[in-house]
Amino acid sequence: MFEDDKPLKTPDIEKIDLLLQYILAVAGRDDDSWNRELGMIHLIKYVYLADLAYAEHNKGETYTGLPWKFHHFGPWSVELYHRIEPALQAIGARQRMIPNPKDEKDFARWSIEDDHLLESLEDQLDLVIIGSVQQSVRRFGSDTKSLLHFVYQTRPMLRAAPQEFLDFTPPESTHSDTGQLEVADSSKGLTARQKKKRKEKLLALKKRIAERLDSEIKETKIPPTPPRYDDVFFEGVENLNSIMTHPMSPMELSVC
Q1: Which of 78, 117, 219, 256 is least surrounded by Cβ atoms within 10 Å, i.e. has the fewest?
Q2: Edge-to-edge, what's the strand order for the sheet holding 94-98?
Q3: Can you tell me the mean pLDDT for 209-232?
Q4: Residue 237: CA atoms inside 13 Å, Cβ hemisphere, count?
Q5: In 3D, which of 49, 205, 223, 215 has the Cα closest to residue 139?
Q6: How many C-beta atoms lie closer than 10 Å to residue 95's C-beta?
Q7: Which residues pair with 109 in a beta bridge?
Q8: pLDDT digit string (tens) for 85-138?
């Protein structure tokens, strides 16, 4: 789906709030207290994965109806972002603010531990959504790096270029002569101009990642402040690893 295309479906606020609340409630049952707290980036990515799972069983139609977009190195929805605080405040979730050394705005971490709430929310959700959330949250918890890496490899992200809306249409599958399952080429149907436009956007994205990563490294030298482990940082790590013989970890990049 290209940047000029606009989703026709109206986001379902009730479903969005319900999903956000359920994600946090599931996280609240984790044995590790660190994983019981989720930030904005975790919540948005878990909603995205739930929408993706639902779309795969419903001919590309998402659960929330949100207009997902490839924005700033990841799936994003401004409508979802604005629902996080009111949705979580409605269930009495705790909010903990973490100082951000790179910005005046602090990070918010949310948590709630309520088994009765969890059961109540489950009664209102589709089984596909329940399965997706439980699987994703238990697998990644608050592990930002692993979660982002997984999200970047999902089909809608791989098919889109920066600022394009994400297409959740399930892939058309065919069987080859060898009997192996093959996924249809997502670039089929694109004009030469569209292919060129997409290529230019992807090249520009790689350049921005490299510049941002280089800036992060330089800023950690003087003064020695902690690096910001955000979408840009981890995407930069992945790009560096793809061209290096010996992959580097985020901690290695943060050492002066």
Answers
A1: 256
A2: 38-39, 107-111, 94-98
A3: 47
A4: 20
A5: 49
A6: 12
A7: 39, 96
A8: 999 999 999 999 988 777 667 789 999 999 999 999 999 999 999 999 999 999
CB 157 within 8 A of CB 166: yes
Q: Which helix (H) or strand (E) segment is 253 a member of?
A: helix 250-254
Count of CB atoms situated within 10 Å of the CB of 242: 8
Q: pTM above 0.85?
A: no
Domain residues of the chain, as ranges?
13-159, 185-254
Spatial separation of the C-alpha atoms in residues 222 and 31, rounded to whole Å: 38
Residue type, 125: L
Residues 6+ apart with CB under 8 A from 109: 37, 38, 39, 95, 96, 97, 98
